[in-house]
Design brief:
This protein is mainly alpha-helical and 246 residues long. It contains 10 helices and 2 strands, in the order αααββααααααα. Helix 5 runs parallel beside helix 6 and helix 6 packs parallel to helix 8. Keywords: Membrane, Signal, Transmembrane, Virulence.
Length: 246
């Protein structure tokens, strides 16, 4: 999660007007899930059909544990997602944790390495399908446009590979690859100053990394499973042929 992501999240407003938390804090609840993997609601262990607020957000100690004058400590309270100050603190904490104990590597470098690894994984299949793979990594100084183009290029390569083997074996290669990459809002308002450009670059790269990591929904994980299934199918046919020749 980049600093730009943090700044956008801190300013996520509540929906105006009446309504329950689900409605008024829908955007904040979505941010917790999409950026931090935190479910605001979890299944109710006492009711299979129900949901409850995530226990980690409940009964949080409040105030100074050793208040002056020997006054009693404030009672525990639940996290109020509608309260801006509490929401800000949670966003800052999540952002700090996402960057804790990590090497000083830019988001662009992490993104480039992820794409290179995916290309290395699928290259044998791409070669068979005559799908061209770019060997050029993203430069550390990649612009937002370069990042966007690289993600689009990756999406096309993965989809071309999938389409090439669609129908080759049963129950495989049916899920399209769709990388849900959107340029963060903060990037749209950045100027041309070096600091602003760097912030926009990091925000775009971080958004691209999240898009790649969403493998269950973007089709990448299923493509990997199908390619493995194809590999086993081909290996089995080869083994059966060798067995028949003996």
């Amino acid at each position: 999660i980049s600093i730009a992501d943090r700044d956008i999240a801190v300013d996520i407003p509540n929906a105006a007007g009446p309504g329950n938390v689900d409605v008024r804090a829908a955007a904040r609840i979505a941010w917790l899930k999409n950026y931090a993997g935190i479910d605001y609601y979890v299944p109710d262990s006492n009711n299979p059909q129900g949901r409850v607020v995530n226990p980690v957000l409940l009964n949080i100690p409040q105030g100074n544990p050793n208040p002056a004058g020997g006054a009693g400590r404030a009672a525990p309270a639940a996290f109020d997602i509608l309260d801006h100050a509490q929401w800000r603190d949670v966003v800052v904490g999540i952002t700090a944790l996402s960057n804790a104990n990590k090497p000083n590597v830019s988001a662009v470098k992490i993104l480039s390495d992820k794409i290179s690894q995916i290309y290395a994984d699928i290259k044998p299949f791409a070669n068979v399908a005559s799908v061209q793979i770019s060997e050029t990594p993203l430069p550390d100084s990649a612009s937002v446009d370069q990042i966007q183009n690289k993600v689009q290029e990756l999406n096309k390569v993965l989809e071309d590979v999938r389409e090439s083997f669609d129908g080759f074996i049963l129950n495989a290669f049916a899920q399209p690859v769709r990388l849900n990459f959107q340029i963060p809002q903060v990037v749209q308002g950045q100027g041309q100053q070096p600091q602003a450009a760097a912030t926009a670059q990091e925000a775009a790269a971080a958004a691209a990394i999240r898009a790649l990591n969403d493998g269950e929904n973007n089709g990448i994980i299923q493509l990997y499973k199908d390619l493995y299934k194809l590999h086993r199918h081909v290996a089995l046919k080869k083994s059966m042929k060798q067995l028949g020749d003996e």
